[in-house]
Amino acid sequence: MDNFNEFRENLINFYRTNQTLSYSFRLKALKRLKLLVEENLDRIFEALRLDLNKSDYEAYLTEISMVYQEINYLCRNLKHLMKPKRVRKSLITYPARGYIYPEAYGVVLIMAPFNYPLQLSLIPLAGAIAGGNVVFLKLSEDSINTSLLLIELINKYFDSSYIKAITGDKEASSQILELKFDKIFFTGSPRVGKIVLSAASKNLTPCDLELGGKSPVIVTESANLDLASKRIIWGKIINAGQTCVAPDYVLCSEAILKPLANKMEEYILKFLGSDPVNNLEYPKIINLKSYMRLKDLIKGNEIIYGGKCNDDSLRIEPTILLNPNLNSRAMTEEIFGPILPIITYKNLDEAYSFILEREKPLAFYIFSSKKEEINKFMNLSFGGAAINDTILHMTDLRLPFGGSGNSGMGSYHGKYTFKAFTREKSVLRAKGYLDLSLRYHPYEGKLKLLKRLFK
């Protein structure tokens, strides 16, 4: 605890030098962050392979390319993002001019998860840098190889009084949360998110919580079943389902259940072959505890396809369940693995009510060729959606990415990453050449004029 507090004090002292606030400092730090990745790609690939068995291709696609994209955007747009925005003159304050300044929070705590240990550490870090903050970066102890590598590299490329990276267990996280920060950015489960928010409330610390939940997929009878099956399975098997926006369960009518399930099986075989648990390009579950939890979710359910497990490699075959009990763990917990329940419905109203009665999901997916069907489900509350696709909505930097309700608060990506790590500060720049007596005492005889001005 003393060490954590010392780290925070060092960050505070560095922030108070105002070095982090200049455009040149921020831009140089962003470029250095990109250099950190570029110069150590092979070591990053190896760490991700050890932690999650990610192939180099999947590591580049889902982690490295997104980090590059975010840093490149921030570098290109940093000057514009930092510039104070002028607002229209107001009758009340005329001739004064109002401005909105993006202000750094100060000392920011970023708590990163295990499932995308590079992307979900460095994208928020890039935003904090662009915003002019100093950073306490808590990395996951589960993805230990990537975490230790990042700690080594961040210490090499940055002053530890500017960015301090550590890892540790739950006790370490609890101790860190007892300290006062100016902003907390957390990515993880809703359960832990509540703990973070509770700790932050003691110091009235603002939080961005990027959580998860059970993201549904609606497949209507008008959908292209081949395309739907391909994209649902692709979205489910990326990182072996350990993705916060992975399709968590599918809702479809009984009429298309069999052809949809057949198509899904066809694409599992096409993507991973007949023996996925021994496919070297297929990621593994992060640790034994998570692996055993997922095996337990499968038990007692009707399996349409899959179910094989490899206890040595911690791989679970993509597994499709049919109509599991709605009170089962498969339907009450975020699955976070390659298990996909299919629930049948009688009509779209029933499917709509099914989603409406549950917690707001981080992602919502619908496959349909009818505009009226799609528009119906756009009235639901969710973090973000993809129509006739999965996952990809979170890769467009022009779109804010974040949750709602149980799936989180706040958003980031692109300009929203910068906004997540700055607050809007209002400034009124007054003039001295016009000074109306209407504002000053005595007020006698002025009310009639005041009413006329603001009627």
Strands of the largest sheet, in order across it? 10-13-14-9-8-15-16
**Whole-number average pLDDT?**
96
How far is the first residue's CA from the last residue's CA?
59 Å
The profile of the biggest β sheet is: 7 strands, mixed
Low-confidence stretches: none
Helix content: 40-55%
Approximately how much beta-strand content do the residues carry?
A: 15-25%
Structure, explained:
The structure is a single chain. This protein is an alpha/beta fold. Helices cover 42% and strands 19% of the residues. The chain is built from 16 helices and 20 strands. Strands 10-13-14-9-8-15-16 form a seven-stranded mixed beta sheet, with helices on both faces. Strands 5-4-3-6-7-18 form a six-stranded mixed beta sheet, sandwiched between helices. Strands 1-2-20 form a three-stranded antiparallel beta sheet. Helix 4 (56-82) runs parallel beside helix 5 (119-130). The longest helix is centred in the first third of the chain and has 27 residues, at 56-82. The radius of gyration is 25 Å and the shape is globular. The mean pLDDT is 96.
Secondary-structure map:
Elements: H1 2-15, H2 23-38, H3 41-52, H4 56-82, E1 85-86, E2 97-104, E3 107-111, H5 119-130, E4 134-139, H6 144-157, E5 163-167, H7 170-177, E6 183-187, H8 190-201, E7 207-210, E8 216-219, H9 225-237, E9 249-253, H10 254-272, H11 288-298, E10 302-305, E11 309-310, E12 315-316, E13 319-322, H12 329-332, E14 339-345, H13 348-356, E15 363-367, H14 371-377, E16 384-387, E17 401-402, E18 408-409, E19 411-412, H15 415-420, E20 422-429, H16 447-454
Parallel strand pairs: 3-4, 3-6, 4-5, 6-7, 8-9, 8-15, 9-14, 13-14, 15-16
Antiparallel strand pairs: 1-2, 2-20, 7-18, 10-13, 11-12, 17-19
Helix pairs in contact: 2-4, 2-5, 3-6, 4-5, 9-10
